[in-house]
Amino acid sequence: MRLLHTDKLPAGHQLIAKLDYLLFKDETLYIVASASDFYFIIKKPAMFAHRAEEPGLNLYQTGFPRVAAAWMVDNIENKLWKSATEGGLPSGTYFIDEDVGGENLKIRRTMHVGADQDKGFVLLNFSRPDLKFTEKNFQEIDISDRLLLKGGLLDVLKQL
User: Fold this and answer.
1) pLDDT band, very low/low/confident/very high, at 159 (cuts 50, 70, 90)
2) Taken in order 109, 115, 117, 119, is the CA torsion positive or negative?
3) Which one of 13, 29, 90, 106 has the fewest beta carbons within 10 angstroms of its own beta carbon?
4) Are 121 and 143 in contact (CB under 8 A)?
């Protein structure tokens, strides 16, 4: 797979949503989906024009099997946001690691994401290597509770 250009998506891919990423100033989150996969694409102003993937912009892309969207929503809402007494994970457990759609995925709860150090999650896919950094053999994205709730990402994931 290669980095997707949201203005020139390959056949069978569709832009589902464009959201303010909320974790860092001047960053935008795009959600693109195909029949089998979906992608989080973060666009941010490029620090060095010669290294930009799009004119003036750097891109960071994280992909998941499409069936993982419902898995993420269920685990965030019903296990990671709830205490053990409310039916969530046992006290002291802050991650879920499972094979979903044939890929090794992990959701990790964290208290420090983004510039404001918000509560949130790290979504990881250990079955897909990073598309920009060859020494990194997995893809990941940080998302905040605020992005999920106020930013609308949770609703987007529920529609996938």
Assistant:
1) very high
2) negative
3) 90
4) yes
